[in-house]
Amino acid sequence: MSNESTSELVVKSAPHITGTMSKNRLMQYTFVALLAITIVTAILWWPVMCPTDAQISSLTLTNIWQLPLGAIVLINALVAIGVAVGIDALFYKVVSDSELNTWSSAVFGLIVTLSFSLGIPSMANATDVMPIDTLTAPMAFVYVALISLIGLVLFKKMQGIAGRKFVNPAAAAKFLVLIPFIGSVFLTPDHFAAYDPATGTGLGVPHLAGPLGGGSAAIGTNGAASFLTYLQSCFANPAATNTPDLNSLMILEKFHGWTGGACSIAVIIAGIALFVVARKYVKWKITLAYFASIAVMSLIFATAYADTDLTTRLLFEIFIGSSIFLGFFMATDPATTPLTNIGQIIFGVGLGILTILIQTYMNFFGGALLALLIMNLTVPLLDRVGIHKPFGR
Question: Is the peptide bond before 51 cis (omega within 30 degrees of 0)?
Fold first, then answer.
């Protein structure tokens, strides 16, 4: 005989409903995958001091710590995880109906770490508008802590109270924290094609809404150099003396940009491994549709703008840190993406198209972040697409 009041409706799981994958186990698998990427990035970036000695002599730096770039990655991870797990535990203690989600909070902390940009491009000089403070220590630790705090409180806990999460917490928190610096972080003048040789203002980056060169020479007036040269100067090891091949640069090692995108092959291996282990619980259709749409759009734009080759734009759009990491580990967030299979495919295609359009016409090279927030808002509509009709009346 139950001791519960007969006036209360008590709903419990039926004994026959079982599953091999709990939420905690899925979060543990995800944490291991993200931790592996973090370790690979830290090892890859450890030999590089940030900023380098050459950049210290050419840049006017104040209150900047010169640390191994890999060390900054690990400290960022500790700060982000510590803040997220700590805030989650605090909510569990002081809010009566708040669950303790330690593994979920730890995963969130690592996503914040890996979606944060670090490293100063080797071609940076004193006349360029670069967000130096956000790209290195000690301010990187402050921004990561703020993103972790705001993301967990405002976009995880508060959205949960509202009944559903409307936007990806890590993406929304990063955008909110860094939007006051939109002129130097998101829409940095260094990404503009305009270049003044007399003053050296701007890096003369070729505009994506124009022809891109895969060689060493610029095409017409679209930038001060070829896009290949820009990528090499931006993502190469600032301490190296040799010029890396574009394929190895974009796929194996980038020394600037999203921490999680430093080694694209590591992200791909970790992401696919997670998909295999938790294939019934991870929305891999979004990832597949996202990268397929990016590839198609890149080839269309390369043809329309008469690029000298079809691979330079394609390699950039797929393997830039924001795209490769977001596609595997943020676009598949179970709480802010569609439930139906058709909805997930539409979501991935829309995300890819928006990413290309934003990066091409807004000079925002992290366009996937804004594209994700926009597509998140379409999820309530996409959940109605492909939904199974109930039996009966």
Answer: yes
Exposure of 13 in the CB half-sphere (CA atoms within 13 A): 5
The structural domain count of the chain equals 1
Q: Identify whether 337 is part of a domain.
A: no
Q: How many CB atoms lie within 10 A of CB 36?
A: 16
Q: Is the peptide bond before 138 cis (omega within 30 degrees of 0)?
A: yes
- Three-state DSSP at 209 gives coil
Query: Helices 312-319 and 227-235: crossing angle, nearest 10°?
Result: 30
Q: Which residues of the chain have pLDDT under 50?
A: 1-2, 4, 13-17
Structural domain boundaries, residue 226: 23-282
Give the pLDDT confidence score for residue 15 in this predicted structure.
47
Q: Are 339 and 384 in contact (CB under 8 A)?
A: no
Which two structure tokens, joined as six digits, stand for 262?
Answer: 């430093």
Q: Take residue 369 and report the two structure tokens written for it.
A: 């972040």
Given a contact cutoff of 8 angstroms between Cβ atoms, the answer to whether 241 and 96 are in contact is: no
Cα gap 312→318, rounded to integer Å: 10
**What's the DSSP call for residue 344?**
H
Asked, for residue 140, whether it belongs to a domain, the answer is: yes
Asked whether residue 83 is assigned to any structural domain, the reply reads: yes
Model confidence, pTM: 0.89
